[in-house]
Amino acid sequence: MTQQEDASSPRALSRDDWIAAARKMLIEKGISGIRLRSLSESLNATTGAFYWQYRKLEDLLEDVRQDWARANSDPFTHAIEAAGPDGMRQYLAYVRVLVLDGTVDPRYDNAIRDWAHSSPRTAEILREIEIKRIDQLTSVFQAMGFQDKAAIIRARVTYFHQTGYNAMQIKETQEERLRNLPYYAEVLTDSTVMHRLPTPDDVRNFLLSGGFPDPDGEKS
User: Residue 194's closest CA among 218, 165, 159, 162?
Assistant: First the structure.
């Protein structure tokens, strides 16, 4: 940025700035709250500054859809891939992202789902991403040894449980959620190993460590 291009300069604002502002507005006010004037005011910019980056508002909204698809899915993909081939390690990595990492914002998912009711394009993107997420979880359960329908249904139950949990905006402290995880893990994976963890801190450390000291560790 040159001395002449301060924060109020149209060229000083990137597409990422507009996407971040639209994301925040979508989460807080819903799609009906995203208006060009409101976005511009939130960035302390004129409406003319918008057109340095976009031809029309719909172009920005498409970028928001794609931003959501990456921001709320990539952390799961990266964590599961980093966990290696062991299915239980993959499941624990998935849970760690949900509960501990803070890299996925469930409010963003809720806002996209609300938007999908009135936007066919958003509904299309939502369907694509949800299919990918369920397929990903199906692979996790297959890596645990569950076959065919058993893996698919466990993946669906896991995913539907989480989307329902987010949609209902259940109020739990992190300690309460960690204390409940061994019961969810038993229902979803048939593993009772987490019941041996007496405190929420033990569960937290278990998740952060990947659960088992080696791939042949005890998992039942």
Answer: 218
Instruction: Note the pLDDT tens digit of each residue in 75-107.
Output: 999 999 999 999 999 999 999 999 999 899 999
Structure tokens at 102: 């803070």
166 and 199: one domain? Answer: yes
Query: What predicted TM-score, i.e. pTM, was given to this entire model?
Result: 0.87
Within this chain, do residues 48 and 77 fall inside the same structural domain, yes or no?
Answer: no
CA distance readout (Å), 77 to 47, 74, 137, 140: 37, 5, 10, 11
Which residue range(s) make up the domain with 19? 12-55
Comparing CA positions, the residue from 46, 48, 39 lying closest to residue 21 is 39
Decide if 3 is inside a domain.
Answer: no
Q: What confidence tier does 213 reach under pLDDT thresholds 50, 70, 90?
A: low
pLDDT the model gives residue 3: 39
The three-state secondary structure class of 212 is coil
Report the candidate in 69, 93, 201, 178 with the shortest Cα–Cα distance to residue 143. 93
